[in-house]
DNA sequence: ACGACATCGTTAGCAGAGCTAACGACCTGA
DNA sequence: TCAGGTCGTTAGCTCTGCTAACGATGTCGT
């Protein structure tokens, strides 16, 4: 059997995930605002803090964004004193981006604030549901990675 | 025991979900572009098509957006011929928004394109993982609803 | 019945994020 | 060496979000 049911289920699930992602981010965006950092800046700062010094191009690719966009995001972070640009010694075309101590502190605070609302909802789940949702999140992550690999 | 483990798990899960949502939408945004409709417009159109005629204010609340923003989104959809405004007879302050047949067609096409990439990845899952991910999506939906209710 | 207040949608004006095109600085390989 | 590629930036556009302010309409208390 060719399983049209399976086809329909895949579409329905895709739609469900898409819709959930949209609405989740809309809620969390409000918390982002409280940190004074927009979502793209917070996301880029996170990559810089955890991914060590990166060139602007690497950062743009990691964030799935074009270089001019990343230039402006980094400029905004630099103006806020969260990040510093430093030219590469070997290859003078490159601009490496480093997180400042302030950048690290702000990221941690923002991160905590951001997930607080979500985490407080998560805490209401019983152990079974928590485990199931964890597994769902893991599967979703793998799904996204497989999409990225497939381009 | 106060279960610090549970606390940490909730935070980690919240972060995982947040990150997954960001990256999922970044991938899907490319597909949105192919339809000529931005993500907010597509999302609003979806609500209009499936939620019947709505006032602009209802639409703004459904999309978690302020009225002026929704005014412009609806104007964009109207200029594209996907939607029509019509004043309410009873209460002349209200503006009802209807989907045109073209709007319905475009939504379906865009929706199919949008979820295609995701669905093709979903289809590679075996039955067990599909069921687990489905349950995860369901739990996530409920989580978001509970966040919304708690404001 | 009528005035005060509330609600709805719009306009105006701002900041931010995304894009493409074009450019200068720099590296590399023939 | 120099022709062509790579990297980051600038310029200029659109779209999305917001707040403030306003006009039109409803509603409610007196």
- Supply the number of helical segments of chain A: 6
Characterize the overall form of chain A.
globular
Oligomer: homodimer
> Please, what is the average pLDDT of chain A?
83
Assign a percent range to the helix content of chain A. Answer: over 70%
Biggest sheet: strand arrangement of chain A: 1-3-2
Find the structural class of chain A using helix and strand composition. Answer: mainly alpha
Query: Which pair has the most extensive contact?
Result: A-B, 55 and 54 residues
Describe this structure in words.
The structure is a homodimer of 151-residue chains. Chain A has 151 residues and is mainly alpha-helical. Helices cover 72% and strands 8% of the residues of chain A. Chain A contains six helices and three strands; from the N terminus they run ααβααββαα. Chain A has helices at residues 4-34, 39-51, 56-62, 67-79, 101-122, 127-149; strands at 54-55, 83-87, 95-99. Chain A has a three-stranded antiparallel β-sheet with strand order 1-3-2. In chain A, α2 (39-51) packs across α5. The longest helix of chain A has 31 residues, at 4-34. Chain A is globular. The two termini of chain A are 30 Å apart. The mean pLDDT of chain A is 83. At the A-B interface, α1, α5 and α6 of A face α1, α5 and α6 of B.
């Amino acid at each position: 059997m060719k399983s049209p049911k399976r086809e329909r289920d895949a579409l329905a699930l895709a739609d469900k995930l898409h819709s959930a992602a949209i609405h989740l981010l809309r809620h969390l965006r409000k918390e982002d605002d409280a940190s004074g950092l927009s979502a793209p800046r917070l996301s880029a700062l996170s990559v810089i803090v955890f991914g060590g010094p990166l060139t602007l191009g690497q950062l743009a690719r990691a964030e799935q964004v074009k270089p001019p966009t990343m230039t402006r995001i980094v400029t905004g972070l630099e103006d806020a004193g969260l990040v510093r640009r430093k030219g590469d010694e070997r290859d003078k075309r490159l601009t490496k981006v480093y997180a400042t101590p302030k950048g690290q502190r702000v990221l941690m605070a923002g991160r905590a604030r951001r997930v607080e609302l979500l985490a407080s909802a998560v805490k209401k789940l019983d152990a079974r549901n928590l485990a199931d949702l964890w597994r769902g999140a893991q599967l979703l992550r793998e799904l996204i990675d497989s999409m990225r690999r497939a381009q």
